[in-house]
Amino acid sequence: MMFLKKIYLKFFKKKTDYKSFKNKQLFDKIFKDKITSINKALLEKKKINFLHSGHCGDLIYSLATIKKLSEGHECSLFINTNKKIDIPYHNHPGDGLYINNRIYEFLLPLLQKQKFIKKVEKFTNQEIDVNLDLFRDLPINLMFNSPRWYFHLTGVQTNLSEKSLEVEDHPKISNKIIILRSFRWRNNFINYKFLDENKDLIFVGMKNEYEDLKKQIKNLEFYDCSSFYEMAQIIKASKFFIGNMSPGYAIAESLKVPRLLEACPEMPYVHPVGKNAYDFYFQEHFENYVKLLSNR
């Protein structure tokens, strides 16, 4: 437990620290008005503007909350691009930014296809009712399952075993095992070499991530997705998905396709919820789950 606290402080410490989780005076001074303002907007307004700055996976996990709120509100989402990441992040595709302009354009088609979102635009100082970035600052423990961060901000909850994304099947690729293994949040107990005999493996992440995993899986093929929407189409039509914490896994979790999560011992804040969904820490279990989903 002390190890997890140290990791939390290293990556997420802002104006507060772990002890302030119990410091009501500090909460009242810094955060209470922000939570009250969000609650008031959701009670009094029919049109709600949301703000999110990324990471992409975090943004995708917020959609479950936005979808729930869309049942009684007209929801618009504004993306704050070019916000700097203030901690070291190995091989981040945004070159030190949560969402740069290239990632925004890659993400936009997926968000625009969600009927529960009225409008998606870049943030240019529009009036914001719900700042979803607040989860990074609030004195809450991020070891909660990621979608629940936004439950705590808004005071609404939804059934996480249900889909929060809608996409069409990919027109050409189907029934493949889809993999995305990012450089961040890997489990050092795990390797993918046993998959080398499988001829139906497609990697959908970054080219340098693919080249790294190709060292373990010689039969691995690379598909260069045109957008996160196309990636979601491929994942939806897959036999099953394998990955660590990344936008790819966030999409698989949100679509509720059969999926395997390479669980990260240091930061276990993503949890599979629903049918045909498993996380694994150890190699033997990983291989067993692959057999299980392969034989469905």
Order of helices and strands: HHHEHEHEEHEEHEHEHEEH
The number of distinct β-strands equals: 10
Give start-end ranges of low-pLDDT stretches: 1-5, 11-19
* Backbone shape: globular
Helix content: 25-40%
- Which radius of gyration do the C-alpha atoms yield? 19 Å
Assembly status:
single chain
Strand order of the largest sheet: 7-6-5-8-9-10
Average predicted confidence as pLDDT: 89
**Which percent band covers the strand fraction?**
5-15%
Total number of helices: 10
For the record, give the distance between the C-alpha atoms at the N and C termini, rounded to a whole number: 37 Å
User: Could you say which structural class the secondary elements and strand pairing correspond to?
Assistant: alpha/beta
Largest sheet: 6 strands, parallel
Tell me the domain tally: 2
Defining traits:
six-stranded parallel β-sheet; 10 helices; alpha/beta; 2 domains; 10 strands; Rossmann fold; 296 residues
